[in-house]
Design brief:
Keywords: Oxidoreductase. With 337 residues, this protein is of the alpha/beta class. Helices cover 35% and strands 25% of the residues. It starts with 5 loop residues before the first strand and ends in a 5-residue tail after the last strand.
């Protein structure tokens, strides 16, 4: 248990790392940003110094630092699992961006390493901290919808598709984008396990590209009989869009509409709503909530609200999507929780 502010070292100063650094330093009173590590010359210093933190060029320096209680991992996804294991070995509590690994074996190794070390381990599934999604989850748990029967979650990234499709790793739409939706659906169907999936995806912004998948729809069956769909697009010209819906035997809840706020402008052009064009804009309060939860869990000496088991459950669906796309058939979801 840490009675004072949790001292955090950030690993990775890219787009999401920059957002996390600013959130920790300016919006999470339970935490203090003390160090930023990034191997690129000058990048860590440019981010750290205005926020009152120091810059490091190596992960090892952060993990060896006596004034670092916990790390926030925002490096490349392919490095997440190794960084989680290394941080746990150093006795640091761990918050990792999703996914926690690029295979189920990697994620299982990460959750075992943190458990063996006795450190907190949280994965960045931010929708669990978005107000509308929290209220929907509370309504479901309270039984206000009755029995959950159908669910829907979608993510649409702003723009017209990747500027260079060749740099998008294969299966990104499942392992990096829809993984948020898979976790959301699992969370909104409490107590149920995903059984199997059918995935359909294609390259619609770069037809014929050999590896890019920029639009996808997934159908998931759960062991309580519920049926869920998850949708993603890399080309929503109107902005960043995150939504959800749950239908139960006694009612329905919907979440999100892509608008920045409830303000609507009514004029000769119609009824207009401003939209966000980035996740760190639309979901800034959710990003704040997840990092505040991590810091508080470390201070309390308890497990965070989102754990390695949740990371495994979401990635198991992503892997089943890859299996379904490869086989052209329904694919089973691994059970490892």
């Amino acid at each position: 248990m840490i009675p004072t502010s949790v001292r955090i070292g950030l690993i990775g100063a890219g787009r999401i790392g920059t957002s996390h650094a600013n959130v920790i330093a300016r919006r999470v009173p339970e935490a203090t940003l003390v160090a930023v590590a990034d191997p690129r010359p000058g990048v860590a210093a440019d981010l750290a110094e205005p926020l009152g933190a120091r810059a490091e060029t190596s992960v090892e320096a952060v993990l060896a630092a006596d004034d670092v209680d916990a790390v926030v991992i925002a490096a490349s996804s392919v490095a997440h699992a190794d960084l989680i294991v290394a941080a746990a070995a150093a006795g640091k509590h761990v918050f990792s961006e999703k996914p926690a690994g690029m295979t189920l074996d990697e994620i299982d190794g990460a959750r075992r390493a943190t458990a063996d070390a006795g450190v907190a381990f949280q994965v960045g599934f931010n929708r669990r901290f978005a107000r509308e999604f929290v209220e929907a989850h509370d309504a479901i748990v309270a039984g206000r919808l009755g029995t959950v029967r159908q669910l829907r979650s979608l993510t649409r990234d702003p723009g017209r598709g990747p500027s260079d499709p060749d740099v998008v790793p294969p299966w990104t739409i499942f392992t990096q984008t829809l993984i948020h939706d898979f976790d959301t659906l699992n969370w909104l169907n409490p107590g149920a396990q995903a059984v199997d999936v059918v995935a359909t995806a294609g390259s619609l912004t770069a037809p014929g590209h050999p590896t890019l998948l920029d639009h996808a729809t997934v159908v998931i069956r759960y062991d309580n009989g519920a049926i869920a769909t998850a949708e993603a697009s890399f080309a929503a010209t109107y902005g960043y869009d995150v939504r959800g819906e749950v239908l139960g035997s006694e009612g329905m809840v919907t979440m999100g509409d892509g608008a920045q706020s409830s303000l609507r402008l009514h004029n000769a052009d119609g009824r207009l709503a401003a939209t966000s064009h980035s996740d760190t804009d639309l979901l800034i309060d959710a990003y704040t909530g997840e990092l505040a939860e991590f810091a508080q869990a470390v201070r309390d000496g308890r497990a965070p609200a989102v754990t390695g088991d949740d990371a495994f459950g979401a990635f198991a669906i992503a892997q089943a999507c890859i299996d379904s796309m490869t086989s052209g058939a329904r694919a089973s979801v691994a059970q490892g929780v």
